[in-house]
Amino acid sequence: MSVTTQIYLVRHGQTDWNRAQRLQGGIDTVLNRIGVAQAHEIADRLRPLTGSIVVTSPLVRARQTANAIVTRHRWALAVDPRLAEIDHGGWSGLTHAAIERACPGAIACGQLRPEAMDLGGGEPLISAYRRVSTALRQLVSASQSEPVVVVSHGVVNALLVCAAVGRGPTHMDRYPQPNGFVYRLDFRRRTLVGINRSPLIGAAKCSHPRRVTA
What we know:
The model is unreliable at about 200-214 (pLDDT under 50). This protein starts with a strand and ends in a 15-residue tail after the last strand. The chain has one domain (about 5-200): Phosphoglycerate mutase-like (Rossmann fold), CATH 3.40.50.1240. The protein has a six-stranded mixed beta sheet with strand order 3-2-6-1-7-8. Strands 4-5 form a two-stranded antiparallel sheet. The chain is α/β, with parallel strands linked by helices. Strand 2 (about 55), helix 3 and strand 3 form a beta-alpha-beta unit. It has helices at about 15-20, 35-45, 60-75, 95-100, 125-140, 155-165; strands at about 5-10, 55, 75-80, 105-110, 110, 150, 180-190, 190-200.
């Protein structure tokens, strides 16, 4: 029987900018009190895993979340720059309300719509999709029976799920991941065979949630 590889996609805990609905992108921000609690809750929820490695974005909010997991379990830690959040360009630091005023329709259900991602003049969505797709392929190829925990960001994790299910980046809004959520991707022979979405504490809820489908 072939071995199933499990990839856990963790979105970092909440920051004050998340709470204010302000785009962070590549700007470094730190976890707030809720975010620290979420990071420790994630560590508790991952307790059944054994022999894991944690691969994190280099941004501080992700590294704080990853460090909480690593400290609790004494797992190995690696930093992968390809998991850094997309650069929002001129929209970095703006609130959703400000973006909506400047570009009506750009925000939907508390998230920047995929088709609006490139309007801020930052990293093109397709470029971010390509770098995270490469990272995912390498993670799946390198892993065998041991699970891998990936700690990253809302856009990047949504793009990772798109890459896993074989969809393009414009489908990323089908895979929302508020702070404190975890996706588990199950691969067999490098092919996705299962996907699970698990809420954790303090997670914001969308008024019109989308069902996760493969």
